[in-house]
Amino acid sequence: METLDNKTRSNRHFGMGIFLLVIGAIFLLRNIGLSIPFWVLSWHTFFLAFGLLIGYRKNFKAGGWVFFVILGGVFTLKDLIFFDISQYTTALVLIGVGLYMIFRPKKDVQFCDFGNRK
User: Fold this and answer.
1) Residue 44 carries which DSSP code?
2) What is the mean pLDDT of residues 31-38?
3) Residue 72 vs residue 80, higher pLDDT
4) How many CB atoms lie within 10 A of CB 71?
5) Strand (E) or helix (H) holding 114
6) DSSP code of 63?
7) Backbone dihedral angles phi then psi of residue 116, each to the nearest 5 degrees
8) Are 66 and 51 spatial neighbours (Cβ–Cβ below 8 Å)?
9) Could you read off the pLDDT of 49-74 as tens digits, one per residue?
10) Can you give the pLDDT at residue 108?
């Protein structure tokens, strides 16, 4: 049991270390004078990355990460696309949530499991 906890902790530290390394490198490149797009270091890009990180850690099975990915993705798309998508945002979010509800992993919830008793 202890080796599993240590391995999980080690994986978390590795992932967080990579994340901090990338963010630090982006700040360094920006300070050197390299042109980094403004949306790379914006709040919605962090939401998108945070949602994907949570989804990866939960094998994309838990539903909480979807909120962050949708929110970050919509605002990042607004910065990347050069025409106004605000009139389509609500429809795209509803379609995305609907697709998630259709294709999400099925949970087999049983409150009283009397069939598997020995």
Assistant:
1) H
2) 84
3) 72
4) 16
5) none
6) S
7) -100, 15
8) yes
9) 888 888 888 887 767 888 888 888 88
10) 62
- Asked if 27 contacts 40 with a C-beta cutoff of 8 angstroms, the reply is no
Query: What is the number of residues in the chain?
Result: 118
- The answer to whether 48 and 70 have CB atoms below 8 angstroms apart is no
DSSP string, 79-109: HHSSS--HHHHHHHHHHHHHHHHHHSPPP--
Q: What confidence category does residue 77 fall into, taking pLDDT thresholds of 50, 70 and 90?
A: confident
Contact 58, 65 (CB under 8 A): yes
Tell me: pLDDT of 1 over 60.
Answer: no
Instruction: Look up residue 105 and give its two tokens.
Output: 């992993």
Q: Which residue's structure tokens are 């605002």?
A: 75
Q: Which two tokens stand for residue 72?
A: 């970050």
Q: Which two tokens stand for residue 17?
A: 């270390």
The distance of Cα 44 from the centroid of its chain, to the nearest Å, equals 11
